[in-house]
Queue: 4 jobs
Job 1
Amino acid sequence: MSNILSDEKISANLCAVIEALGMNNASFAKQIKKSLANVIEYRENKRRAIHLVPFLIELGINGNWYLTGEGEMFLQDVTKPALVREPQGSYNNQNPDYSKIGKMLVDTVEAAMDAAKKRK
């Protein structure tokens, strides 16, 4: 299992994501439906940026890269965020709910980080 990055490094990855998407704080906040103030706090590590994993996965960001630094930043070749791209193919009930998957990932990572802190 890969090691999870520190909160500071995850915040740095968030900054890299926003830049790679060609967005500023305001446009990114609007895209993920968060306030501008919250996005700034996530970027400055005043809020735990790990909580943005579900939103980033929906934008085509590789959650593994975001949390561990391993692999590619994007899950696929994207030039625009997934939420504003034209649909590719038909959507049906068999598509995974990435918000739920991302939330489960965050919960699992947080539990592992808490357990590691208790061992120290």
Job 2
Amino acid sequence: MGSTKGLTGPIMDFECVAQREAPPIGQLNPPHRLLCGPGPGNADPRVHAAMALPEIGHLDPAFISMMEDVKALLRYAWQTNNSFTIPVSGTGSAAMEACMANLVEPGDKVLIGCNGYFGKRLVDMADRYGAEIITMEAAWGTVFSFEQIKAAVEEHKPAILALVHAETSTGACQPLVGVGDLCHDNGTLLIADCVTSISGVPCHLDKWGVDAAYAGTQKCLSCPPGISPLSFSERAMAKLMNRTDKVKNWYLDMKMVASYLVGGKGATRSYHHTAPISMVYAIREALTIVAKEGLESRWARHRKNAEASGPASKTWASSVSWILSTGYRHLQPLRCRRGLIRVRFASMCSTNIKWKLETASATLKGRSGVLA
């Protein structure tokens, strides 16, 4: 320790008291795993390499240019022309909360489809922002018919309808064709959870009339978690900009974030928070890989590989047919054979073949063994 002789004051108090010795923790060396759970998945080596590149400032013109690249690539991945299409600093749950925090105003009727774990999370978030919540319920592993959605929207006339496009907890994929038009005819905004579906199955925000969507990076984008796509339509932005009260979440206030990430013609970008520089590198590289492969080819590859894995999985699991009927092929819940304990099976895969699987949530324990 350097000499502090003759120096006084709290900033010169160099003596460690609460923890005198540093913990004896060595160099990081995580095990290698083939990540076959619902997320995170293995990141592309190019993405890891991008994260190791030198950082620059978050207001550097070169970084702002990279952010514009990310926004353009996200529009392609989501098939949208929404101007407000950005990466949120945080995991997919941050983008999820950004939708609720910015679009739900106290007293708004919010209709939420609950057919899995993440529908329930939407209910919890909307409730915290003062929504009058109405739920549509369906058995886990199933989806809502257009007729069910139409009846609920026309009965309740909600300000917002929130549906999980790809329900990670069950593997179900909710059809959205026609739902946007239905919502708009009834003065309703449509929010879609695309955390597990972006770049894995077709996502057509503009074609389907989706007003707000959020996603994660750690699944079909093959990018580590820590940054999350978000897109608002002009209708969603109008609702946000016309609010008379403050958004109840400072960090995720998209009015403020827009002044940093979107700006205006000739306007100076204002500081809101320090963006996660290396994660922006990562998502840019991941989306560049998506663009090079092409969405049509990527969707087809996911489907082909999933259809090949289904029959193969029957050698060690009893059935996947109940979930494949929903059309969500790249996330497959597997039911263990009789007598094979779920947790033991997942542990066995991890130990013997270095596959990392995830056991099902409590609601599905009697039906689905492992999410793969």
Job 3
Amino acid sequence: MSEKFDKQYLRMAQIWSENSYAKRLKVGAIIVKDQMIISDGFNGTPRGFANVCEDDNGNTPPYVLHAEANAITKVAQSTNSSKDMKSETFKCLVYKQIAPKGVILQTTTYPFNEIIFHF
């Protein structure tokens, strides 16, 4: 995939993060295969929960889902298989959920700027 498309997909992940109800950190993720978006996600609560991502003390409840996990869950429920994941923030290393062979994660967040992770 070209660097031009990588940067565009990362910008799209950043824009998608605006859908999050989180106050402290909004995160978006896009899963791409053959230069087509096959899934997306943003950090937030599961369906049926109140859209509250932090408690009164600013702590994140354990049921709040990561953007990457939401994107993976969506694609897992479809017939698509993932290949590339673009996430504009990668503070929490959620290896268990993005570890399937062949998944490539790219992020723009320090200290991983412009690094592509192969799992």
Job 4
Amino acid sequence: MALLDDIAVKLAQDTFAQARATGDEALIDDVSKSLGATSNTLQEAYLTAIRYLRAEARARDVLVKRAAKG
């Protein structure tokens, strides 16, 4: 369902950005628990989006480090 994915991705992007900006990684879990209390399907889509964002962030860190080495 497109709406489900759109909501999950937007929520994950916003939460991930705030967690990185504040250093509050618990925020990601808190939002997940809140979603799980009402919609397990949305919670799973959100967690999948969070995993993608974390993987992208790690990959970009590798690229930056590699570029810095010259």
